[in-house]
Fold this sequence. Notes:
Layout: E1 2-6, H1 19-30, E2 32-37, H2 45-48, E3 52-55, H3 60-70, E4 80-83, H4 89-99, E5 102-107, H5 119-136, E6 141-144, E7 162-164, H6 172-175, E8 186-195, H7 201-212, E9 217-225, H8 227-234, E10 242-246, H9 250-259, E11 262-265, H10 271-274, H11 279-286, E12 291-294, H12 297-303, E13 308-310, H13 315-327, H14 329-343, H15 348-363
Parallel strand pairs: 1-2, 1-4, 2-3, 4-5, 5-6, 6-7, 8-9, 8-11, 9-10, 11-12, 12-13
Helix pairs in contact: 1-15, 7-13, 11-14
Amino acid sequence: MKIAFINNGPFYPNFRNFNYYQRVYFLSEWTSLVLFVGKKTIVSNELKNKCFIIESKFSGKAGFFLFLLTRLFYLRKFDLIITEPSTFTVFGFLAKLLYNKKWVIDIWDIPFRDLTGSWKTKIKRKIQVLFFRPIFRRADLYIVSILPDFQLSELRLPREKKRCFMNAIFLEEYEKLREVEPFEKFTILIQRSRFYKGFGVELMLDAFSRVLQKVDARLLIAGHLMPEVQQIIDQYPHRDKLIVPGFVDHDEFKRLALKSHVCVIPYPRIVDLQQIYPIKAIEFMALGKAIVATKIAGLERLIGDAGILVNPIKPENLAKEILYLHDHPEERKKLEKKAKMRSRNFDARSKNQAIFNELKKLVHTSN
């Protein structure tokens, strides 16, 4: 099977547990895959050794778009076109329209995601959804790794074409890790690649203030802080109790998580966060960590009874559960074992094998 995979990346080694990275990794083992990427897109050596890569000659997203237009005829050679859930779906649509090719949209993130919530970005997103809805609907198959009943439903995708999965990770790399000495002080970890205002930092800081009334603890905030979040951190009255290393690579994240006593996912109940399956939750489980998380749709389905789900979502409730795990280390150990066991349900190879089976069925179905 010959597959053209159109994705603007990047494919950092740190991103091994991202859906699109996994798709290239596994489909390159099982098919003849060509990866189309933007100019100077970083692709890990691991993937460079597994597939053929065609890099845009023009810079930026607009340049990549133009480059793909000049290579549109090349798509005739493939059995299947896979596109990311963005404006680049146009090229799957054109390959289907012009060359009658099978086309799959790999929906690993919310299409046209709005992380700022400003009135301008909201209007922009509405326009994008209206424009791309008829294009998305023409795809032959959707690999869906988010909850389908939230913002994705705005695209009105045919239900019979959806194949829904939860996220998954390379579990084998977590089996090899050795135990490490925990931090001396009781340490709570929260982690995101980027922390935006309104995405849980404020809730966690409020809860942490309540924890500090009972326990001399530390809050480790690992990830890039957007400017408005950095300002909140700088003005926090207990700044000396915070550990803020900024962005950390994947190996350092695992080390910090192993040394922490409790891992917390303090997401508020907003649509953007409810509809995702946070990879960090699976990684925390695979590391055998006690998890406290807010009870929102995606987290609830991922974690189940392998962590403490907080509802109603209030700082005092979050603090109460964190303090409970501090005061009851035996309960913490039970949760750690449950988390490790549950993580086995989220194996990347198994998920991608199931996806590959769906792709084979599609390609072998006559137009």
